[in-house]
Amino acid sequence: MDFALADQKSPSTAWSDLRSERKKTHLRGRNLLKKVPFKVSSRNISWVRILFELASKLFLAGVVIYFVYASYNFLISDPRFKISDVSFRGHNSLMEEQLLNWLGPIHGENLFTYDLTITSERLAKHPWILSASVQRKFPQEIQIELTERVPYARVKFEKVFLMDNFGVILSEETPKYKDLPLIDQSNKGAMPENFSGDKVIQSLKFMHYFNELSFFENNPMDIAELKGDSRIIFITRNRDLQIQMSMDALKEGFRKFMIVLDTLEGENMKIQMIDLSFKDQVVVRDRI
């Protein structure tokens, strides 16, 4: 039997080969670490950055919300912003005390939580107020700008009321307006809730037309009596002349009066009634 003996390396040579192989393995490992872990680290850094930015934004949002909340609490609770003064402008007939009673408590309310819209709506419901504007005046004042309705005539029911030029009833009459024209309603009961001032306005309009004529310069009309739904009687200040017209033909009646006006000049002191309510004629009644 033949035996083949392999060549054996010396111990120093084997050790060198082992070290060389380990070095190569170590280098291959380092190369792998340079390639693969770099990509993983980039992804991790990106996610960390996103999370950090999100956390920063949430933190800032929280700070802002807290600041707003703290500011709001300060504004609505600090006594330096309690209303201590309410000023009115544009009021002539109404007194400030009347307006404050109409609005209810204002003093002591917080300037920023006080509802200006409700105040404006409340003022608009007052019969004397045509329009109102309400605004805050820092730090403790409410300013109210008013436009009042102007009394235009008196309307007599069971009592006498003031009315503006839109036919809106304002209040009971006062001595200050006793010289305004008087419209005497045929209904002598209490003022109805559904009262419409259309006929009254029409009456006042033609009363004004008559008083613009020289014929009534020294003795103007100041009373109009509504007789039912169809007739009206105008009465002069001296109570010595009456003009009767149809409510459905006021323009026609005034036109007929202008036609006969020349014949009445100089004779008005003897005339008691002029009836313009008929369609095709004018009836003049003498005092005698």
Question: How would you portray this structure in words?
Answer:
The chain has three domains: about 30-75; about 80-150, Ubiquitin-like (UB roll); about 150-285, Rossmann fold. About 40% of the residues lie in helices and about 25% in strands. It is α/β, with parallel strands linked by helices and about 290 residues long. The chain is built from five helices and twelve strands. A hairpin with a 3-residue loop joins β2 and β3. The chain has helices at about 10-75, 95-105, 115-125, 200-210, 250-265; strands at about 85-90, 130-135, 140-150, 150-155, 160-165, 170, 180-185, 220-225, 230-235, 240-245, 270-275, 285.
The tally of structural domains comes to 3
User: Structural class, from secondary structure content?
Assistant: alpha/beta
Please count the beta strands (DSSP E, at least 2 residues each).
12
Q: What's the name of the CATH homologous superfamily of the largest domain? A: Cell division protein FtsQ/DivIB
Q: Can you list the strand order of the major beta sheet?
A: 6-5-4-7-8-9-10-11-12
Q: Average pLDDT, to the nearest integer? A: 82
The share of residues in extended strands comes to 15-25%
Order of helices and strands: HEHHEEEEEEHEEEHEE
Short description:
This protein has helices at residues 11-77, 96-103, 116-124, 198-211, 250-264; strands at 85-89, 129-137, 141-148, 151-156, 160-164, 169-172, 182-184, 221-227, 231-236, 242-246, 271-275, 283-286.
